Amino acid sequence: MKLSDVRLSPERVLKDISEIAEFHRIQGSRELVESVEMIKEKLDELGVENKLLRSAYDGETWHGTLASPIAWNPVRGELSYGERKLTTEESPLLIMAHSPEGEAKAELLPVFRDEDWGKAEGKIVLAGRDWRDAYKRANEAGAKAFIAYREGTGEFYPYIGLFLTRDDLEWAKIPALAVPESVAKDMISKSLKGGVEVGVSVQVETPEREDLPMLYATVGEAPYIVFSAHICHPKPGANDNASGSAMLIELARKLSEAYRDSFRFGFAFLWIPEYHGTQAFFERVKPEEFYANVNLDMVAGSPDRSGSTLMLVRTPFSRFSVVSGLLEHFIGLTNRKGKSFSGSELPAMAFKAYPYEMGSDHDIFNFFNIPGTMPITWPDRVYHSSGDTVEKVSLETIAIIGNAVLATALTLAGEDKEKLRRFARGYAMKVLGEVSMNTETEESEKLVMRGLARDSRFLDFELGYEFESEPWLEWKLRGILNERLIRRNGGNAEEFKRLTEDRKVYAQLHELLMLSELLPRGGAFKALEEEYGKVDKEKLERLVGVLEEAKIVTLS
Questions:
Q1: Is the pTM of this model over 0.85?
Q2: What is the pLDDT of residue 2?
Q3: How far is the C-alpha of 109 from the C-alpha of 126, rounded, in Å?
């Protein structure tokens, strides 16, 4: 497959990144809504059909499996000790997202061990991990305020959100702040040398309700290839995720210009708050309108300034699709710079495609039976911090990812079906070949063939085959699994938390549920092992039991 002649403008994307990065886009805040309204104005100017859908942040509504945080706007924050003073003029991240307001002045208590909590009453607590649990414990212990920091942030303020609901406000009473690691270590040093008094002040607004905005744009008719990007996250949030939101604007521009009535797909574009917005979106649309999803999250990280490589998260085996293969192929063509000693083209960025991983809005599309894939730059040394600024993003990275996504869309929509069939066959052989180098392909081959059969219905070629499903379970409450949901449904939230501390187990649990709606128990676990290698079957079995007890799944 050849690259399309259509190219996006990295410079336009960069300009939009800088504009979006001016908003402090916390979920539940007014500035989140304002950032979406700004993007809507841009789409209106481009003549791209769009509509602004709305749900609510009120601390009570449920967005699918996720409880809405409260509506919340920071006003001003201040922290002082000794000669040092920090304010929100330096960074709004000084106030932890969704913190109650309040003032306090007291001795600092760094918490290193469990027994330190016995001394927390009347103190200002400083904690470096498990922040949400630590914040609740500080309230219960009678602390006057809570300060968080995160290892590895250096001079930058970390982004830490509490996502408090209205029920949480029954116990969440003290102000919560976040400081750079360097400040935390200075405060700890002074505390250990004889104590340090800290003063804090947090002013916030907590209206009864704020809009949860979902901006949805379309070009052409269904079925759609849908491109998504989460618009939320704190100021500046340039790579995470002003970059994806800005690239989405440029894709809407270029695909609306390139669209032809002969295309087999229309194009849809979705800007949402992460997870909450995507789950709320699926309460308002028909999943069968969509062929596949490409999710854009952190698509501008630089190898030098951010320490980033380029990852492609493939669709899971339960949702196998050629969309991952085309995007992988085109990244290989756009990601070129320089020559080897024999003249072969070399990659501009380190790049690898990975089996399905969780962590962004492609997850929700996959849960609702729409194959979702995601290009992402990772790691990012300024991830979730005030250091995620515009000067750290890369025009070269924007061009690599953006033009590969653009080529994927145009190829799926307009390429000759025999060329697509040949490519799909080759990609299936590649994926199964990777599996067969390590294990048998008994279940994965069935799933790949099923995915190709679905692709065939949309792409008008004949490939793959269906198989008769023998589901182990039914996923009744579809969406991101979490402790609050399990607790609401009378399940064992503490056991769920303990068993999912390993993020691999958590991701594999969701894929296991998708597999288990297609395969019997033994086949689902075999497919999971073929996809990921070794899995913790005992933990996953127990987690399914926890979900069954909470009526989130029912066993067949």
A1: yes
A2: 87
A3: 6
